[in-house]
Amino acid sequence: MSTPNSQNSQNSQGDRNSPGGPNSPGKPVGSNRPWRASVLGSQVAELLRRPGRSMGTATSLLIAAFVVFGAVMAQQILSATVIARFHGTPDAVSLVVTSEGDQNLGDARLAAIRKVPGVAEAVGRIDDGSPLGGSAVERYLHLSADPGSGDLAGVRLTKGAYPSGPDRLAVNTQAAREYGLAPGSTLTLLRPDGDDSDRTRQVKVRVTGIVRSRATNDTDPTGYAPGPQLARLLGTTAYTRVDVRTETGSAPADLTERIRTAVPGAEVRSGDDIRDEEAHQAVTDASDLLDMVTVFLVVAVGAAVLVAASTFRIVFARRVRQLALLRAIGATPRRLAAALVVEGAVIGLLAGTLGALAAWGCGRLAPALAGIFGRDLSAPAHFPLAEAVLTVLGTGLLAVFAVVSPSLSASRVSPLQALRSSATGDGGTGGLGRAALGLLCVAGAALLALQSYSGLPQPGDGEYDRLNGLTLVVASGALAFLSLVVLGPRLVRPLLAAVAVPLRRVGAAGRLAVAGVGGAPGRAASVSVVVALGACLIGSTLTCLASLQAYDRYQQAVAAPADFSLTSRDEKPLDAKLAADLKKHPELADVTAFRTTEVVEGARTATLADLDLATVRSGVSLTARTGSLDHLAPGHVIVDADHAHSLGVAVGDRVTLTYKKRPVHLTVAATLPGEGPYGGNFFVPAGDLTRMGAAVAPTMVTADAAQDGPDGRAEARRAVTATLTGPERGDGRVVAESADGKDSQSEDLRTMATTVVLVLCLTVLVAVAGVATTASLTVAERTREFGLLRALGLGAGSVHRMVTAECALYGVLGGVLGLALGIPYSWLGVRTVETSAPFTLPTGSLAVVFTALVLVTATAGMVPALRAARTSPTVAVAE
After folding, report:
1. Which candidate, 734, 673, 700, places its Cα nearest to that of 609?
2. Which site among 151, 349, 493, 749 is 20 to 30 Å from 166 CA-CA?
């Protein structure tokens, strides 16, 4: 039985489609304008009537605009700060003269430059370096020519006097600290003896002072002296370049030509150009990290689009009666969808404007706040107007992308919906077409992952195209995440049944929370997928970096297992008492002596050692790929990755080595991820090496500094030097190599890990905003439900816990889905980047990430939960 209203609606629909209706083919186009105006007007009126709902929709877009323009402001602040701090070529340098071709800048050409009219001062620069003698530990000192005073000086004296005579040097603070130098100390430079680079001569110099360089990149031990003195000291006749200061401070137009005439073949450039290039290079080096950050901002923007699309869908579902009424009075689906898209674009432009203004304000406040905490940041020189306009327009475009699908769905609402209550806004689990698309994405991801796995490199494979392999991994991961987006609604209820068992047992609030999330799988999936994106990226980043850090520690243990390694120059065994003498110094720790010898494996020669790998770096850095490095039993051997792969052996297999033409049969106890320390390929117990007939005396002794840091290593270096220059070992037969700076790669990895995780937290921030917005909209949508629950006796606290638990479940679902997707791809990515890297799963960090996701999503729902808890039981009666 139809109602009069429904009949009227149908008649109206029929009139519109009748030959005389407003949409008939014969109707003039201009007569459609009132309908278009009424549809747009109704949407504008709805936007103005309920701005809070629109702001909830725009939250994720505002965050996206904020982080994008915030990156622009960070770039501006970084550039301004680097340029303000930059000190390279002195400001007084007007021109810089360099040589072209075979023409050297010697003393004669320097004198010719000084005689050019208009030149007030000219100094020659030299950039060189020399190994240092006089110590058992190998050291290196960079050397640079500088006048030491005046406008063209690049250093400032802090202690002693600047060198003014032959065989004198001033050293910077880095050299003084690392090499224990002070005014009055002596140094021995090892210089090539004539044309024979294999022979060296010793040049004695005295340190006259300590200087501090004004250059921002002066972090290496460096010695300074005036150009002519340093040239004579090094035995050179050429300067790297000549810096010129003019009488007026600026170079006349014809001065460049006069210098070129006086010094044929010279290249003359402006000092300003040189400083600009140096500053640009400094900014470029500092911006590398921001460039990496920009890549990850794309992920945050993508998450914002997903959240915006979900919230637009919910808002449009709340307005289903209004949209149905517009359909009933003649609005076509196309015009209704266009009006909704326009509405979304307006919201996006407003959100982009607010986000850009907020980022600009934070950028202006950042230098002042940094000053409070003792950091010196420079404010941006100007407002980046072009970038701001692009950010606002881009946010509007993102809003259009986000609103297209929800608007098309909303525009297809039937006019009969005007007679019904508002829809729930949940898209359900989708139809068969969506399931087919999801399965197609799963199949594509699996095929790409299988292709990547089948092409993984083997140990020693140097021709593997890692870029192509990573491309396959990323493409497979993108398809896998797309399948998660498509199939998410179908995964919610099965996954919820598995993870929500404890929540069902905590009372009515828990059971109602599980039922509320499971009753709207489309909405739960749309929010949880964004949380899953953040969990997947952060979890996989932490896992990959943990694996790479483990491999980096392994590489350090291989390249520099100890702070100092002592060997014989003539490759003969060392003094058996050397290790005991080193152990007497409290500045040294972990003194280890071991032997190496050559064996034959198959058709090639290999190195056999009795170094106990479990003691290298206290067993922290060296790890086994298979087996264990601890308690190496007699008759067993540890094999490096290359030989294990070439022999095709694993733990428990037998290998045969030939030593002095006698076969030695050993059982594999472990294999290494890569090569072994000190070039060793096979490692056996010391007793086995002795029984094979090897000499008892060690071939290498290693030692660590007892204290970390430059001071601790400097003290350890003096202890090693004192041991090797004593009366019994003063012949220089034993040489010690230092492994200073071995932790730099680990610091870079830690910095990269921290930066990437912080940037990826922007994705989580967008997800949290989506959870809060979704919870707010659903609370308004379920007012009648909350009123009925209150009328049936559910207390306000229980309602609050129910809504909070629902939001926490979004975090649980997202965390489980994200980590389940991220960990396998982490393994594949690590194997692709470095097949020898041991896959390390940071379970503690992943547990913290999962817990944090649940807590922040639960916190995001606390304000909507308070609103739900205040719902009066009479609301159910009123509705």
Report:
1. 700
2. 151
